[in-house]
Amino acid sequence: MRLNPFGGSRRTQQADAVVTGAGSGIGRAFAIELGRRGGRVICSDIDGHRARETVEMVGAAGGKAFDAICDVSRINEVGNLADTAEEWFGKPPDIVVNNAGIGRGGMVIGDAPLTEWHQVLDVNLWGVVHGCHVFAPLLREAGHGHLVNVASAAAFAAGPRMAAYNVSKAGVLALSETLAAELSGTGVGVTVLCPTGVKTNILEDVPIPDETVARWGDRLLRWTGRPPATIARITLDAVDRGQLYVVPQVEAKLIWQSKRLLPEPYTRAAGLLERLAR
Ligand code: NAD
Question: Is 165 a known active-site residue?
Fold first, then answer.
């Protein structure tokens, strides 16, 4: 860990990092930004081809990278990822970004099939649980490092027709807060990222049966989504400041504050807005 002359730490500079879901979108942007900051990055993804593409991009950004196939919903694969990291770095990583996730939605509770609930929770929640379960003890033992968990503003926004996704992200938020409490005073930090729209491939291949819902989802992402590179940079700067919560966009902050100040009117308004938009 390098000291920051302005206070705080510069743990994202020349860091040895592991990023899950690094083959696209936000994970890829994290990997590239860590490379730009002089780091060595293990770019892991369920899709080996995409992970290798990211390795090239990290190299072009000035970093060193290594690809690994890892399905985060499988604990043995996350365990293997940690072994690979220790082998490659010769020590535990400085930063672990539990980012891999999938998007699902479009149906109300009761209509959405339980298979969708299982798929979403397996990757978005269990994937992050596995990442924390495997890496937190290694970092605690080392006495330094940082875990970055990618949740979403969906964790608190109560957006209709995406219950499984919302629940998975609320779980990631609670997990991160608990982890931060447990790790306080150990030298290991935790940051949880809660963005609204980010321009990525997350809606690609998402089977949304209702055309209106699919069209609105796509438009929202295209019109209001931020570039993943911006989100990665903001988050890593927050890691350097030791910040727990990263709610990077104005609308995400608005939702976060409204929900805390006026939870019941907020929830009724979320339902009304969704009905009006249809
Ligand atoms: P993306 O689809 O562009 O990238 C996701 C990556 O994760 C892909 O490379 C995919 O192959 C990989 N992946 C999928 N399942 C996996 C698994 N089981 N194991 C390992 N890798 C797997 O999507 P993104 O938007 O970059 O999503 C990254 C994270 O950001 C997700 O957790 C998502 O929920 C979260 N997020 C996205 C947005 C957004 O608007 N894009 C907003 C808030 C939060």
Answer: yes
Options 165, 225, 228, 233, the catalytic residue:
165
In the block, tokens 């910040």 appear at 243
What confidence tens digit (pLDDT) does each residue in 166-175 have?
Answer: 999 999 999 9
| CB of 152 closer than 6 angstroms to any ligand 1 atom | yes
Task: Confirm or reject: Cβ of 94 under 6 Å from ligand 1.
Answer: no
- Does 101 sit in the ligand 1 pocket, CB within 6 Å? yes
CA pair distance 210, 244, nearest whole angstrom: 37
Q: Which two tokens stand for residue 44?
A: 């892991």
pTM comes to: 0.95
Report how far ligand 1's centroid is from the alpha carbon of 124 (Å).
9
Q: Where are the alpha helices (DSSP H) in the chain?
A: 25-36, 48-60, 75-89, 114-120, 126-142, 154-157, 163-183, 211-224, 228-241, 250-261, 263-277
Question: 255-266: per-residue pLDDT in tens?
Answer: 999 999 999 999
What is the Cα–Cα distance from 268 to 276, expressed in whole angstroms?
12
| Residue type (1 letter), 164 | A
What is the full DSSP assignment across 26-56?
HHHHHHHHHHHTT-EEEEEES-HHHHHHHHH
- Does residue 52 have a pLDDT over 50? yes
Q: Phi first, then psi: give them for residue 172, nearest 5 degrees.
A: -65, -35
